[in-house]
Amino acid sequence: MPRMDRPSWHTHPRAPRRVWPWLLLGLCGWFVLLALRVLAVRAGPGIYGGCESCVDAPVILSDLLPTALLLASVAAAGLLRPGAWRMLPMAVALGVIVLYLIDLGIYLIFGMRLRLTDLLRYGGETRSTWSVVAPLLAQPRGVAMVAGLLLALSGWAGLIWTVPRRAVLALGSIAAASALAAATFAAPLESVDAYTYRDVLRNNRPDGVDRAYSPAFRAALMAASPEPAARQCIQPASGPARSVILLVVEGLSAYHSRLLGGTQDSTPKLDAWSRRASYFPDFHANGFTTDGGLIALLTGHVPLPAIGRYASTHAYAGYEKVAVPDLLAQLAATGYGTQFFTTGDLGFLDKGQWLRGLGFGHVEGADSPFYENLPRGGFNAASDQALFARYLDWYDHERTQTLNFSALLTVSTHPPFTVPGTELRDEAGAFGWADAQIDQFISALRQRHYFDHGVLLVTGDHRAMTTPRPEQIAHLGAGAISRVPMVVIGPSGLPAGPHAGRWQQTDFIAGLLDLADRPSCTDAFRGRLLGAQAQPARYVLHVEGAERDQVRVWIAGDTQARELVLDGDDTRWIAPPPEPDARVVLDHVNRARARLAPVPGDFIGGLIGRRLDAAP
What we know:
Blueprint: H1 15-48, H2 56-62, H3 64-78, H4 87-110, H5 116-122, H6 126-137, H7 140-162, H8 167-185, H9 194-197, H10 215-223, E1 232-234, E2 243-249, H11 268-276, E3 278-279, E4 283-284, H12 290-299, H13 327-333, E5 336-342, H14 351-358, E6 362-364, H15 384-397, E7 403-409, H16 427-447, E8 454-460, H17 470-476, E9 486-489, E10 497-498, E11 503-504, H18 508-515, E12 520-522, E13 539-543, E14 550-555, E15 562-565, E16 572-573, H19 581-594, E17 596-598, H20 603-608, E18 610-612
Parallel strand pairs: 2-7, 2-8, 3-10, 4-11, 5-6, 5-7
Antiparallel strand pairs: 1-12, 3-9, 8-9, 13-14, 14-15, 15-16, 17-18
Helix pairs in contact: 1-4, 1-7, 3-4, 3-7, 3-8, 4-7, 11-16, 15-16
């Protein structure tokens, strides 16, 4: 207890001098993190735009806002007595620093920015998350990140705890914080890459993706009779049913393929197979994550987000029902076996439970005995080479039915793009390695005469999580964020060579039924990918990952992409197409999302998870 005749530490005339070391320590750590973010954006939009230093000012100006919040926390502490009351501004400051670091790490690994809802969704998947984060921390920039974090945390915590309770210091901090905040908002970011420059706070501003429909609006949607939306059904051509293998390659994108205009030329072997088979130069993923790709391919639904879906640990909840009722049951009744193989963790976001609920007869993942003692990578997954070896082993020794629909999901090309068997982290190298494994798999199927009666499709689950380069945008246009390869090998009913038109993942199911010699239907939102009567849908939809409240829409005959903003009752077009397309698409999206209802589950999922009650 201080003596009554002597000033306490916090009122001592020299107290401000004792604050300077903490301030310098905190600023040093903060500037390390800021420099790392500037370098990260330089390596993305900076290099791609041909001017690395041009991104420095936008990033620094944007990050003045979290810097202002740090100073405001110091000002708040300066207005409070020393002690427990200062824990609140300290928590704010340390929270800003931690969020900044996490945001930086996500951008370095995935090319995307932190969304707080993603922390709720993926935060519980500790083992899988660590398997992706650990390689980054082993790199020099990862070490620098940890060092910057420790310096910033200790410096700002010490500063807030020890700053004297003096009005002049508090007012000075408030003035500095206000000036920084004003400078931030005085320099708006007008760029297609603005989400890469924006600070983590503004990137997490509330948007309309979680704004619920009003009861009256929802009731009106449900009561209205939807238009037939150009629904057309055909009977099977009475040809022989075909086995189908759907190979979904993690992050495989159009820009990886020289055949599709890519500059990496990472898939020369797959390109060679494509030229001898059938391929779709303008094929789109409907979502931006693996769960979105699987939902579109295996249910025929665009993964339009339910209210709260991005914060729910139930990534697949809401998409248990398929556009074709009992699709896998229909296949089983026709004599098909149905299988799903991956080397990834089936517990991740409840993927395994969802797949079994869809009706797959055999589902296996990382816990398969076949992968025991094999090297593991991200998500505790063995390599793609091991996945193909496992499937061929099953095909040779465990297959009990002549006709099969098998879905295979790879993992090796997931960020941070580590080349299996090496410590090399290189995107082009990782996809080049995967290309060689796919080539060997196709050759092995050919040796087994699979293509005498079976069809293989090779596609990506979503576009790789990297920033689109200018040359990609120049060649692919708005499709640079969604274009993935689609290669079809075997007797699919398609002529060899490229197939014109704009196609999407939701077109797969009608094509699968056609090959299974079953009736199939298309509509304005779902085409038919395979068979002699293949046709694309009128509308192609892509749920965006950078701007979570937006859906990109392509309309047949329209040369430009359109944007829908998800905002509850006020869901709207940014630049509407002509009628009736504007109304048809808007009604479809609203009706599909309004049908999503809460599901029971864990705490988060029980509150905000959603379920698909009926097909739109």
